[in-house]
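Margin note: ligand = fructose -6-phosphate.
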Amino acid sequence: MKIHVYEDAAKIGKAAALIFAAKIIEKPDCVLGFATGSTPLPMYEALVELRNLGLINFSLARTFNLDEYAGIDRSHEQSYYRFMFDNLFSKVNINPENVMVPYPVSANPDDDCKAYDATIDAAGGIDLQILGIGHNGHIAFNEPGYVFPAGTHIVDLSDSTIEANKRFFASADEVPRQAITMGIGSIMKAREIVLIATGRGKAEAVSAMINGEIDPMCPASILQLHPAVTVFLDKEAAALI
Ligand code: F6R
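Resulting structure:
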């Protein structure tokens, strides 16, 4: 695990965007894994800037998002599908047909989960994945538990996650209780991972991820076993490592 501590979130966003830009230049038809939430926003802004400067071309890139709320429509202003179009996809020259955000659509959501993993495999696997981390150590929506879930699955959101995400909704009651998420196995199959954490509120989770035991009670701790993880932290998030 390579760990870099930067001054602020904007600098981290630029540094992380350059890793994604390098991947797109090296392999124009690369498969990118994207996340939502506040943390990757500076990186998406920096990617839009690089595109506006004509330095990167998304036209052949394919993307897979980590997760999506269950029970809200894709047109909902808090859906992750919409988040990605609002913050990145509508601002760069990506082909909307190459964009995948998981979404349970059939009567049997387990089939949708298996289909999502099969689509990632058929695309050749994820070359480069961006991750944030939850206050409870979750990555994607893999919440603390007794096992590391392997594939894409439906998950009940923890109280900690509902509390953290209520800032995007009118109240905690409106936060969906379930989500579809890539599993830990799906994430660990990515060839390269960049994880960003900013703010003092992430310091405990970051410390458990880096210095703690590999334990599904801190899902991000599994990243200690991945051969190519780069972690970008600001000073607050790095306070306890
Ligand atoms: C979002 C995701 C989540 C977030 C995490 C941190 O797609 O997978 O794991 O990365 O909840 O969220 P923020 O960045 O809002 O603090």
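The pocket of fructose -6-phosphate is lined by residues 35-39, 66-67, 132-134, 138-140 (CB under 6 Å).
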